[in-house]
């Protein structure tokens, strides 16, 4: 028996002794069907729904503030986000800091009953920090040193930069942390949205320290990375390069490790700001991000109090709001997330702008996000920028202070918010029974080693996760996107796509979940690499082989090979990498086989019984219309076995299930495509706002219309 299989069997034996996991906290809906799930922990109670704008008083005459406040009050705006770009205002020269101006601003807003989310201003360091100090600037992967301007142009690894950042954060927290207007803090803004890995001298020095901490000895690093390949063997940590340009490509282990280092380091930068703020303020702390940014999302939110994201979709891209809400809702269980930035009409910057929203879309967007678990919806921005790189972006008010095309849309949102608020306060999102795994480690690996794919298949890790999330959403299933390290409580079906490295810790939790009755669908691209981004030497999918009850015979790219597969009477085409397997025991059965003399007698779809549950391995991705239909049917089959019932709604219409304190179900229903739609509802359903009984079991909505119903 080889080493990996021996370790896997030992791991399985250990897992077998765990017994059943804790019972699911099911909170079945009153209809006894669609949307049943687990109730979120009642550890936080919303007091209101926040409706806000990003506000930059430092850019306009002081006398405009009173006019701004009056206009915001008339619109129902109840909070502002300020501060993220104010560093040069607060500290015009090094060490000369005054926060008096912002205290006076907040005094006025507090008197008017408008709350504040205060951002630390570290995205835009002033020129005095870098002028004459090129060593403090960010260096990109091409070795190009950036210059002062825009934002994120400094190296946050440089000691002088960090000192300056923490000095301004402490000055703000110390002098403003007790201000009664502040309801929350935001660390920086959109960390790593414009840049990725830092290759400055300071970053490389920090990289060497990180390597020493991670590997302890250079011998361990050499062994784990197999550095005799191409004679890259190192004699000290200081010799290990950052993966700048080289004649061909760097070792995959090195490239992935450098991404992991940078993302851990920027999370620590956020942690340190949190530590400073918490010395002076009890208000909760968040960060505004989105899945595309070059951060480790799970690590970033580890020490934050709640999650926040931004999204600027056109009316045709509204599903991004569903995906991000599902992802960041699950990031901090039991705590509402915020949509911290979105546009009232259209997104835009120099040289580009998106189409203007149709009438009613913004209202539908806000109701969708509130329904999926948001506490706040916030617009970027209040008044159109009169200068800079984003003068094409929409705002509530124009530069000349006239209502824009988005003004009336904000009014629609406020009317909806008032109706929603008591219902949202009295309920929480239902915890889904199906989730898709998000692994930041996997994302770093796939950025190093792009996936084999046919044209049109997602190019990024995030795209693949969204593909699987979309398959669930389109079929009407209520769903989560859960981080790799998240609890599996409440779930019945877990789908894990494109996770090259599967850790023992993750497997341990999944085995508990399966033994207690859950089903784990291992989706293509999973298990074929080690933690250090090398190829397993004892089995094709490492310890995953033994867990799935298979032996990997071949791993190869399927795209454009013409190799097909059979499941019953269905014939499928494939794309991407394939792990062709055979079974290793009677508890694993073959459901789908590969049809090629190149890989004789092998399977791409297997099912293993483990405890009360199942482990399903789909090791190649079916493609085309038939392939999509097959995957949908695969999901439906296992969902039915697990008594997970989808909502029945027309395309473009979304159901957001919630549960109130009495355990009763509440559905927030929104038409997002602007065409109108239909949703099947149980009999004896009432309109939650009017209390009237709905006389039909098929609810009809107009374009961008919304309803809340009590089941």
Automatic annotation (TrEMBL):
The protein's Enzyme Commission number: 3.2.1.23
List the GO molecular function terms: beta-galactosidase activity
Annotated Beta-galactosidase trimerisation domain ranges read 433-644
Q: Which CDD domains match?
A: A4_beta-galactosidase_middle_domain
- Please state every residue range assigned to the domain named Glycoside hydrolase family 42 N-terminal: 54-419
Per UniProt, which keywords does this protein have? Glycosidase, Hydrolase, Metal-binding, Signal, Zinc
PROSITE patterns for this protein: TAT
Q: Which positions make up the signal peptide?
A: 1-27
Protein's UniProt keywords contain Signal: yes
Q: Does the keyword Ribosomal protein apply?
A: no
Known catalytic reactions = Hydrolysis of terminal non-reducing beta-D-galactose residues in beta-D-galactosides
Similarity comment? Belongs to the glycosyl hydrolase 42 family.
Write down what this protein is called.
Beta-galactosidase
Task: Supply the source organism's classification.
Answer: Bacteria, Pseudomonadati, Pseudomonadota, Gammaproteobacteria, Cellvibrionales
